[in-house]
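Ticket #4471: complex job returned nothing on first submit. Input attached below:
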Amino acid sequence: MSTSLPIAGGGTGAASFAVPAPAEQKRHHGLVRMTHWLTVIAFCALLVSGGEIVLSHPRFYWGKTGNVNTRPWLNLHLPSSRSSVPTGYGYVLPDQNGWSRYLHFEAAWLLAGTGVLYGLWGILTGHFRRAVVPDPRDLSPKSLTASIVRHTRFVRPSADEAWSYNVLQRLAYLAVIFVLFPLMVWSGLAMSFAFTSAFPLTASLLGGHQTARSLHFLTTILLVGFLAVHVGMVVLSGFRSRTRAMITGHAEKPQQEES
Amino acid sequence: MTKISRRKWIKGGLAVTAGAAGIAVAAKVADSAGLIPPDAGMRFGAGETLTYATQRLLTRHSMAREFSQADISKHPFANPVDPLGPEFERLLAGDFAEWRLKVDGMVEHPSTFTLAELRGFPASSHTTMIGCEEGWTYIAEWTGVPLSFILDRVGTQPGVRYVVYRSIQPDWWESIDMDDALHPQTLIAHRMNGDTLPVPFGGPLRLRLPRQLGYKSVKYLNSLTLTDNVKQFGKGLGSAEPEVGYSWYAGI
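Support reply: We reran it on our side without changes. The output follows.
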């Protein structure tokens, strides 16, 4: 290629100089990149505000009801922002629930809107079928085992793997997109007294308000686990080139190493 | 070049003006449809407005989930409140015989009800869950006079949009729109689990609003004011909660 790496959408209207890259050089579609970073923003806001909300009652229960007079299945043994919670600590944290709840629900709208956009686009364009659903041949025990072994040995991905997702990535993305995020939204709505008045099954199918709250928390841990592995893999496989690909849409060719 | 850019500017300007006008009209229509919460102008107003408007469209007439007698919590939690003051102590000493519920504002007959009068009105019960914004819950059976009965009795003036309600706790006040005020499950509760409503749970009177979080179910209720403009109360955010950083609408 003749010119430097084209920055997609970078110019302010003067796009004429940018040489459009051949289609096969495009790593990530614009919609994938946009929804990826919107999800990053929403997820960070939800994680911080959600953590603050947990601190007002860092105990978890199963079933419909639970409070400081009942036994939790999980006590995080963290200091709390409420003096009514017996934590064993001699102090009470400042109350941050007000802005945390406002921000949590505003960020939830951003995430839900982004998710609907991404989901519809992914289904209508065949993106999920092409890029996320694994090839059945890769799902054989032998092939799966080989892929796991390669990962545990931290073998650097081959050149062509930079252009597609491998089977483990595909399974992880499938779980995150179609199981964990929907479960997060579902268990969140199940805690809304107004929403469950119109849609009572939202709460009762999960086993009650407190079970929904516990699932919301457990799913958070799985998503944070995914985030850690995801970022870890990006670092291992080349943080600069992978991040650039998710920003500009173009994967860096090995010989075009920039200083 | 300049011609094109000027045309672009005019086009862009027109588009921005049309967009702003469109948003202004949409906001006006949404407000008259009761889809804009009083705290919409605050920092997180956009998300709050989306939540309130969506919930209003989905849940205007829906009924809070009711539970069986067997679900009633054996260990409900009474969230502690600040000391209620000498006036409350005096009324408590008199077994609340002198407790009054004052109703004023946009009503045909401003009235004051005694506890005995309220207990004599037709009562309604529901076994519902109360949940704190902190995350904990309990289930109890609540009995009281439907707020709609009181509003019917005092006669509401046309154009009324909100009911402002207050506690004997100083500076503690809330408000709800008429969808919630006239909802059959919205009670002026004076009994809990078959007994007189205990003081730690809000006795003698608590406004019980089961489709919203516990902080909207104000304890020690002593006055109602009907209004068409909730912004003239307090700091104009709809209730005491947004003034300390919490959302006015607490359906989620």
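Residues 2-32 of chain B form the longest helix (31 residues). Closing as resolved unless it happens again.
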